[in-house]
Design a protein that fits this description.
With about 190 residues, this protein is mainly alpha-helical. It has helices spanning about 5-25, 30-50, 60-80, 85-105, 115-135, 170-190, and strands at about 145-150, 150-155. The chain has a two-stranded antiparallel sheet. Helix 1 (about 5-25) packs antiparallel against helix 6 (about 170-190), helix 2 packs parallel to helix 6 and helix 3 runs antiparallel to helix 4.
Length: about 190
């Protein structure tokens, strides 16, 4: 992208770390989570590769065309998957944004279509704010220590039982933090376009 080197390397690190965590999330026992994590891993690593500062590595034109093809295929897959889950619509918008940015870079232009860039910036700004609010802890009034109806004892309550804590790869708040990181990364990439 066209941005300065230091923030570019920070963006590469953020996106690559997010992609690596998404790869680990693919070990989930829940099939839908595995599929979603796979798409998010592709997005994270693709964003990391595209965010490498041009001063360090200026990819040839064919590399940008390859990015556009890969993310075009990812957009088609997300469109197909959107039949069963609304979350895949977000993946569709993200893949489209990656195709758009790759096409702009392949053309050699230093700016995309201002209206389209603005729409994508507005979407990802709203997505980052919405996802961020979902990470804010909410105080829940409920029963104190003791068994959780239908699940058995509370974690750390000392009495054995049928409650099994989710693995760290299946924790919803970590998946949301991952999505928030990628949304912020997408905003940064669109701003440098």
């Amino acid at each position: 992208m066209h941005g300065p080197a230091s923030p570019g390397w920070l963006l590469v690190a953020l996106c690559a770390t997010t992609g690596a965590y998404c790869l680990l999330r693919m070990r989930s026992r829940v099939e839908e989570q595995r599929r979603t994590a796979g798409g998010e891993a592709l997005m994270g690593f693709g964003m990391a590769a595209m965010a490498v500062p041009a001063a360090a590595l200026a990819p040839p034109r064919w590399a940008w065309v390859a990015y556009a093809a890969v993310f075009g295929a990812a957009a088609l897959r997300a469109l197909w998957a959107a039949r069963s889950s609304a979350h895949h619509l977000h993946h569709l918008v993200g893949a489209f944004a990656m195709v758009y940015m790759a096409a702009v870079m392949a053309s050699g232009a230093h700016a995309g279509v201002p209206a389209l860039t603005g729409v994508l910036l507005a979407y990802f700004t709203a997505y980052v704010l919405w996802t961020g609010t979902r990470l804010v802890p909410v105080a829940v009034a409920g029963p104190g220590p003791g068994p959780v109806p239908g699940l058995g004892p509370r974690p750390g309550s000392g009495s054995g039982g049928g409650f099994r804590a989710a693995g760290w790869g299946d924790r919803l708040e970590l998946a949301r933090a991952c999505r928030l990181s990628m949304g912020i990364g997408m905003l940064a990439m669109l701003l440098t376009l």
